[in-house]
Amino acid sequence: MKIHIDENLCAGHGRCYTLAPELLDSNDEGYPTRLGEDIDVTPQLEDAAQRVVANCPEGAIRIL
Ligand code: SF4
Known about the structure:
Elements: E1 2-5, H1 15-19, E2 38-40, H2 46-55, E3 61-63
Antiparallel strand pairs: 1-2, 1-3
The structure holds iron/sulfur cluster.
Iron/sulfur cluster binds at residues 5, 10-16, 32, 56, 58, 60-61.
């Protein structure tokens, strides 16, 4: 599985990396560090990926 965070939709309020720190990190401005990249998700982290997709208020994270 891969996920992608749309840098044009992300508002940087941090719900994703707060809910799933094992999957996502943040930069100094409070945005996820891998905006605009295709992020590989190991099978062990697929539940976390589903959680961040379901909880992003901007709909910025999608499963590829
Ligand atoms: S929850 Fe969504 S809008 Fe908020 S920082 Fe994460 S990707 Fe961006």
